[in-house]
Design a protein that fits this description.
With 426 residues, the protein is of the alpha+beta class. It is built from 15 helices and 15 strands. A hairpin with a 2-residue loop joins β13 and β14. The chain is globular, with a radius of gyration of 23 Å.
Length: 426
């Protein structure tokens, strides 16, 4: 079979992986880590909860489907006609799992031996959907319970309430599992339609890292992968303004201390531009309110936050935000203090020495990740889905300047585009 195979090396870190464009249409990434005892494999599709509007070369126009289908499909794929997939993995001793996020669904395993037998199971069941209306009805009840349980989680409610404040139309504001109303609209035909659209090998990637052999992996892939025609899949989203929907939301639940999230809405990015924005914003959040910052120490000493406080840069197709959150007896005061600190830094400037320390620390973390098979597969999969090379991450941090980060302070932290979500005690 004609595959396009290339070995990609990075001189800076002295690492390499093998990229294969398989004749079936699948992108395959293999990172040989000699001497490792564990192997990790991710088989993912660029299909998450936000992909509710799509079109292929077989459709005249865009199709809209109910929220929660990607997650529903992930649940259903583990059931074969004749057995449960976990029973098959039990024979090879692999730990298997799957997850659905906002923009991807991933089936994975990790093991210490028999990685090729586990790979056969992985490639086989993900390519063999089996749904009947009866099993779909049963699953609706199970996922419905999951949705209700999630609605009882104060932390999750606070997080999604923040997303509803920040986003006017983008589906990222809807929980990954969907709603009780949306999953009620799912039937077997609709699941098959979404499956054949998004589980096309041209929209997927297989990533493996560990004590593995490229030729052995390709032999299994040649046997298991069914060639797919490229259906020219396009996804679309409703127009999203740069403005936020509202600047605050307060909900009352059974909590002992208020939980809060504060978010800044930014211009979405793609490809390498996204990578640079993510690196800049990550360093900035550490400089402003990370555990080594002046503000963090003050807020801890005054008892306004505790060790639960954290930050993240949350991004994907059509969205990019900087978020912080935790517990506080006075979340509104925490918000005021963060706003004031950002204004002070815009006036007085960032600490160059602190920037160098944080940059070195993050860069070191990326390098350490190359000694972990799970972080290697995760890096390769995200790079493929977001449209850059796995080594671009390390190159981006290496070339990031103090001037880039100073500029980012104005781009990523505009108080006009910020919102707070609070869950307070009943």
């Amino acid at each position: 079979m004609g595959h396009e195979i290339k070995v990609v090396k990075n001189e800076r870190v002295g690492e390499q992986y093998t990229y294969v464009k398989h004749s079936s249409g699948l992108n395959i990434y293999i990172w040989e880590l000699n001497g490792f005892s564990t192997t990790d494999a991710f088989f993912g599709t660029k299909y998450g909860s936000i992909n509710t509007r799509f079109k292929t070369n077989k459709d005249d126009d865009f199709v809209d489907v109910p929220e929660g289908i990607a997650h529903f499909l992930e649940h259903k794929l583990f059931e074969n006609e004749d057995c449960d997939v976990f029973e098959l993995y039990a024979k090879t001793g692999a730990n298997a799992n799957a997850y659905t996020s906002f923009d991807q669904t991933v089936y994975l395993y990790n093991c210490t031996d028999k990685y090729l037998e586990s790979l056969e199971i992985l490639l086989s069941f993900v390519q063999k959907p089996y749904f009947t209306q009866e099993t779909v009805d049963k699953e609706q009840g199970i996922i419905g319970q999951e949705i209700k349980m999630v609605q009882d989680s104060p932390d999750r409610q606070a997080y999604f309430n923040l997303l509803k404040c920040l986003f006017v139309n983008h589906p990222v504001k809807v929980d990954i599992a969907g709603t009780i109303e949306s999953i009620a609209k799912i039937d077997a035909d609709l699941l098959y339609r979404c499956y054949h659209t998004f589980y096309n090998l041209n929209n997927m990637a297989l990533c493996i890292a560990g004590n593995v052999n490229v030729d052995d992996i390709l032999k299994v892939c040649d046997e298991q992968l069914k060639p797919c025609e490229d259906i020219e899949l396009e996804t679309a989203f409703p127009d999203e303004p740069l403005e936020i929907a509202q600047d605050s939301y307060v909900e009352k639940m059974k909590v002992s201390m208020p939980i809060f999230y504060i978010g800044y809405k930014c211009q979405p990015k793609k490809g390498r531009e996204l990578l640079k924005a993510q690196a800049t914003a990550s360093i900035l959040t550490s400089l402003i309110m990370g555990t080594t910052s002046k503000l963090y120490k003050e807020l801890i000493e005054e008892g306004l936050i505790n060790s639960q406080f954290g930050t993240e840069v949350f991004f994907g197709d059509g969205y990019f935000t900087c978020i912080c959150g935790g517990e506080s007896k006075n979340p509104k005061l925490v918000k005021e203090r963060i706003f004031a600190e950002i204004e002070r830094l815009k006036r007085e400037g960032l600490d160059r020495e602190q920037f160098e320390i944080i940059k070195k620390s993050v860069y070191g973390g990326i390098i350490r990740g190359f000694n972990n098979s799970e972080s290697c597969v995760s890096l390769m999969l995200n790079a493929d889905f977001f449209g850059f090379d796995p080594f671009d991450d390390v190159e981006t941090y290496a070339s990031l300047t103090f001037e880039d980060v100073t500029k980012g302070l104005y781009e990523f932290f505009d108080s006009e585009k910020a919102a707070i979500s609070i869950v307070e005690p009943v």
